[in-house]
Amino acid sequence: MEEKIKYEMEFPIQVSPSLLYQYISTPSGLSEWYADNVNSRDEYFSFIWEGSEEKARLLSRKSPERIKFRWIEDEEKDSYFELRIQVDEITKDVSLIVTDFAEEDEVDEGKMLWENMISNLKQVLGST
């Protein structure tokens, strides 16, 4: 199996960090922009897209800063995806930092997928 490559993307989002955290850390918030439906039980989240379901385990969360998941189906224990809120101390600009992993030939596709997802998130939040 090919080793996955870690990549990070930064998306400026004009919204309060506490509101953004609700959208990245709760099943109802994630259902608004990330998947058609999201359910959770304890540290396990079920993400549903057009009838197919993927399960992820919540690895860590720090309110109102970040949340980190690992797909249950992913054999590679070092890979995860993390959504982290970063606030510039001087300008107070808010950014969402996405960290994810993909096989080398799927990195560009993964980045495009995140760009589309974050575009959905910005629309839901009314951010530009």
UniProtKB/TrEMBL annotation:
Residues 1-126 form the START-like domain. Pfam families: START_2. InterPro entries: START-like_dom_sf (IPR023393), START_2 (IPR045736). It comes from the Bacteria. Signal peptide: none annotated. This is SRPBCC domain-containing protein.
